[in-house]
Automatic annotation (TrEMBL):
Domain of life: Bacteria
Pfam family membership, one: MutS_IV
One GO biological process term: mismatch repair
Name of the protein: DNA mismatch repair protein MutS
């Protein structure tokens, strides 16, 4: 395969000077000052690159995209492809590398994943036209598209189960030093367009909920010192954007112009920040898509108060969308995903990321799941019909942008047929409102379109429309005639070859074709010598002499080649016209098709959640406006699934955080017990049950009664942030501070081992004060796991604090974890037993036991438990009974009975052996 077209073949040869400066550092001034020193091709390259300096430039040359200078070096390192050299610049070789056009999507995927942006520069004219102009004319080229993480549409670059969101930010001042932030989220691959507004304190949580692939930020916000850490911690690419043309008036005008409306009122009421963010998102989309116009839905306003607020740290701790290592496998979404369509997978993830706080909306989803749970035959038929549904929304988007192919038309065809089938199944079953609305959206979409697509499209379809062959035989008579001509021409070639064999007597004579000289007759040199002589030279015209062969042309072959080329070109032209007509019909019905695609996703998610509940025995939770929190036999869905694969059973546990009678604030449960006993699992499972219940799913519990939770906080596990100079303890304190400053009565707070990252008394003091704050100020439902057993005394002094512990059993000096959470408090942490299970060397374990014994028998100057009586919060409460004085052990008593001055050497030796025996006995216990 050639890496240069003929019109550009000599472009890189030096013509009295250098080519260009490095791609990333070239200045426009230099290109203007040195135009005479550049080859025509490099002058064109520099001009295009200067306009897209922040992108890697994919510069089309024939069958390859080439990269030069620093772009080539970056691409070579990132893609692992060979870095070559081509021509010179200022006496030095020009770095160059390239990727085949037919494999460009694979390489784009890797570059985008590495955080790069790519400008795709195509040849905008036929190389033959450049040849006609003569001289040093080169093929005209231009950037047709910018490829960025938030604006990709190709299936090979997208995760089918994840929305590919571009999020743009704007803000408005709400006070002297306070702002409200508008966020606009566009998924160009499906056309979804939403906006919302949040206070500054909720900005990080809202970005985490959306989980975008790319964030567009006005440079004034991007440079804000208080927000630098926020941009640094994002997994998404963050792109600063100049504020030019984004003032309120021009922002509103951009939106109205794009959607062709005189007023935005038809779409709802938006704040100034939301309008500015929406306009910024549109501006970026238009910049990256150039002339292509995506089929975006009108902006839909999402009320941030309508969803359960979950901050970024909590999402990471609970592993909702990905594990702490960044993998989808092992996360909650991967565990519960039973969907069978790409759109259903994305909707499930969206619902899991944004649980509701509206009781009515949650109950509507539960009603739908309960209906399909009880209608198993219907559910199975629905899932069978859904399994044939392709990614309609993304296929429609590609067709609208002009990047679609025959398979995208087929996706719409198959999706519409499946929508009719699903709607018919639901219509015969009297479903609840959510499913009834979905059925209505799928009924009668674009009448006749699916049938027309079925009639037009062949059974086997190419990926690209330019390859042809996608229109069914019999659909277009003119096309069929052109195809017959192609077939007949090939037959004529075979007949012509047979005639030439008879005329020359050469059985090895072949009629062949290549792109350089077209059709030709090829014979061995011995026969060729005869063909250049009369009488054969009247028919055969010599063209080439090769090693081992001679080539000739004939008048008949030339005429035949023209007929074949004309027939093929004509056939492809007819097919492309058919494609355009079908594409226009699909785009014209775009809004109805999008609604049908969304409805199919709703049915898919509902059926998947019903199947999940049926398979795993999950139950419908009771969700209301109270502050109740009562879970009977709750289970951790991810851990239970892992244990099931290993042939083990999960131990279910109850959790009660409902307010005591007469109170209007939730309980705090202090959970104690050894490491590895399951405290963190217990904490997380109750948080996950809330998320599942409020997203509209059934839950892994025998019974569940949950009063709406509006904010969910989880501080579980240990992690540092060395890049920002934060130790594990600092990260822990920052996350704890966020919880204590934001949690209200409707929040659910999960805290694990607060204060363990610092000195014992410092940590105990912090944990103690945090519990007081949760009890007296936040007044929220909370689970608080701790190894500070002294804190369990707070349950006797604070009316809404209760103790729970994870049961363990000891057997021959080892600890056995029972994973059962029961009322009460642990008296020790069993740390040494756990260390033994972990494989610490026996001498270390023995020494640790000895040190622990010494520490436990050492009386502190003031036992921590007695501090309760000295704190102002507890001054009026009854005093606790005094702690009993520590007992002397047998070794101490034996030492008290020894008087060395009165002992003989033999008695002293016997006493020493006796003391050693007592110590050995004590160490065994």
């Amino acid at each position: 395969m050639s890496r240069e077209v003929s019109a550009a073949k000599d472009d890189l040869e030096e013509t009295g000077g250098s080519a260009a400066a490095p791609a990333a550092t070239h200045k426009a001034a230099r290109s203007e000052a040195e135009p005479q020193r550049m080859t025509p091709m490099m002058a064109q390259y520099v001009e295009i690159k200067a306009a897209h300096a922040d992108c890697l430039l994919f510069y089309r040359m024939g069958d390859f995209y080439e990269l030069f200078f620093e772009d080539a070096e970056i691409a070579s390192r990132t893609l692992g492809i060979v870095l070559t050299k081509r021509g010179k610049h200022l006496g030095e070789d020009i770095p160059m590398c390239g990727v085949p056009v037919e494999r460009a999507e694979d390489y784009l995927q890797r570059l985008i994943a590495a955080g790069h942006r790519v400008a795709v520069c195509e040849q905008t004219e036929d190389p033959a036209e450049a040849k006609k102009r003569g001289g040093k004319s080169i093929v005209q080229r231009g950037v047709v598209r910018l490829v960025t993480p938030g604006t990709i549409t190709e299936d090979s670059l997208l995760d089918p189960a994840r929305a590919n969101l571009l999020v743009a930010l704007a803000r408005r001042r709400t006070g002297e030093d306070s702002y409200a932030y508008g966020l606009a989220a566009i998924d160009i691959s499906t056309g979804r367009f939403t906006v919302t507004e949040t206070a500054a304190a909720g900005l990080s949580a809202e970005i985490a909920r959306l989980d975008p692939r790319e964030i567009v930020v006005p440079d004034t916000i991007y440079d804000e010192p208080a927000l630098r850490d926020l941009w640094r911690e994002q997994r998404a690419a963050v792109t600063p954007l100049a504020r030019d043309g984004l003032d309120p008036a021009s922002a509103e005008r951009r939106l109205k112009d794009f959607f062709g409306v005189a007023s935005l009122d038809a779409f709802g009421a938006f704040s100034r920040a939301e309008i500015a963010a929406a306009a910024a998102a549109l501006a970026y989309v238009e910049r990256t898509q150039l002339a292509a116009r995506p089929a975006l839905s009108p902006p839909l306003r999402e009320d941030v108060s309508g969803t359960l607020s979950i901050d970024a740290a909590t999402r990471a701790n609970l592993e909702l969308m990905r594990t702490l290592s960044g993998e989808r496998s092992g996360s909650l979404v991967s565990t519960i995903d039973r969907t069978v369509t790409p759109g259903g997978g994305r909707l499930l993830a969206e619902r899991l990321a944004s649980p509701l706080t509206s009781v009515a909306a949650i109950r509507a989803r539960h009603d739908a799941v309960a209906f399909l749970l009880g209608e198993r035959p219907l559910r199975e038929r629905l899932r069978q019909a859904l399994s044939a549904v392709p990614d309609i929304a993304r296929a429609l988007s590609r067709l609208t942008l002009g990047r679609g192919g025959p398979r995208d038309l087929a996706a719409v065809r198959d999706g519409l047929a499946a929508a009719e089938a699903v709607a018919s199944l639901l219509a015969s079953a009297a479903p609840p409102p959510e499913l009834a609305a979905a059925a209505e959206a799928m009924r009668g979409v674009a009448p006749g379109l699916a049938e027309n697509l079925s009639a037009a499209l062949a059974d086997e379809l190419p990926l690209l429309k330019r390859d042809g062959g996608f229109v069914r035989e019999g659909y277009d008579g003119t096309l069929d005639e052109a195809r017959v001509l192609q077939v007949d021409s090939r037959r004529f070639i075979a007949a012509l070859q047979a005639r030439y064999v008879n005329e020359t007597g050469c059985r090895t004579l072949k009629v062949k074709h290549n792109n350089v000289i077209g059709y030709f007759v090829e014979v061995p040199p011995a026969i060729g010598e005869d063909l250049v002589k009369p009488p054969h030279n009247a028919t055969f015209v010599h063209r080439q002499t090769m090693a081992g062969a001679m080539r000739f042309s004939t008048t008949e072959l030339g005429e035949l080649e023209a007929r074949i080329a004309s027939a093929a070109e004509r056939a492809l032209g007819i097919e492309l016209a058919v494609f355009e007509r079908l594409g226009d019909a699909v785009i014209g019905a775009g809004e109805a098709i999008k609604r049908a695609a969304e409805a199919l996703s709703v049915v898919d998610v509902t059926a998947a959640l019903a199947l999940l509940a049926d398979d795993l025995g999950w139950t419908r939770p009771t969700v209301d406006d109270s502050l109740a929190f009562s879970i009977a036999a709750g289970r951790h869905p991810v851990v239970e699934a892992a244990l099931k694969r290993a042939g083990q059973t999960f131990v279910a546990n109850d959790c009660a955080l409902s307010p005591p009678e007469g109170e209007k604030a939730g309980r705090i449960t202090l959970v104690t017990g050894p490491n590895m006993a399951g405290k963190s699992t217990f904490l997380r499972q109750n948080a996950l049950i809330v998320v599942l219940a409020q997203m509209g799913a059934f839950v892994p519990a025998a019974r569940a009664h949950i009063g709406i939770v509006d904010k969910l906080f989880s501080r579980v596990g240990a992690a540092d942030d060395l890049a920002r100079g934060r130790s594990t303890f600092m990260v822990e304190m920052i996350e704890t501070a966020a919880i204590l400053n934001q949690a209200g009565e409707r929040a659910l707070v999960i805290l694990d081992e607060i204060g363990r990252g610092t000195a014992t008394f410092d940590g105990l003091s912090i944990a103690w004060a945090a519990i007081e704050h949760l009890h007296e100020v936040n007044r929220c439902r909370s689970l608080f796991a701790t190894h500070y057993h002294e804190l369990t005394a707070l349950a006797e002094r604070m009316p809404r604090v209760e103790n729970a512990t994870v049961r363990v059993s000891e057997w021959k000096g080892d600890v056995v974890f029972l994973h059962e959470v029961v009322p009460g408090a642990a008296d020790r942490s069993y740390g040494i037993q756990v260390a033994k299970l972990a494989g610490l060397p026996p001498p270390v374990i023995a020494r640790a036991r000895a040190i622990l014994d010494e520490l436990e028998k050492t009386e502190r100057e003031k036992p921590v438990a007695t501090l309760v009586d000295d704190l102002p919060l507890f001054a009026a409460m009854p005093p606790r009974p005094a702690a009993a004085a520590p007992q002397k052990d047998a070794l101490g008593e034996a030492l008290d009975g020894i008087d060395p001055d009165e002992m003989s050497p033999r008695e002293a030796l016997e006493a020493l052996y006796g003391l050693k025996a007592l110590r050995a006995e004590r160490d065994r216990h």
